[in-house]
Description:
Blueprint: E1 12-15, H1 18-27, E2 30-32, E3 38-42, E4 47-50, E5 52-53, E6 58-59, H2 60-65, E7 68-70, E8 73-75, H3 78-88, H4 91-107
Parallel strand pairs: 1-4
Antiparallel strand pairs: 2-3, 3-4, 5-6, 7-8
Amino acid sequence: MWVRNIRESHDLDVVARGSAWEIAKLLGDIEWREDGVQRVSLLNSDVEIFNSWGFGRWSADELIDSADLFEGVRFVNLGIVLEYKRQLTREKDLVDIKLIQAWLKEKDV
């Protein structure tokens, strides 16, 4: 959301696959979440590296291959972010859903 100027962010979620995931696993302890997704948390959770996302619904390959490019860097497709936040329904996600929907409406996407 930050890269699209929808809102500020102070943390970074990263999806990794292949050798990048193997390196991530060496950087910290692997947490197996209830949804089957693996996570490595770094810098007091300011950076979190995942092997998949959305309760395991989206594989790293799917997320990376369908990502939007911003100056050569891949960011998860905003439609997937919106769907993921709809699954979570935490208070902060409900706010983000409204922000994303307003951004999409403004951009006429």
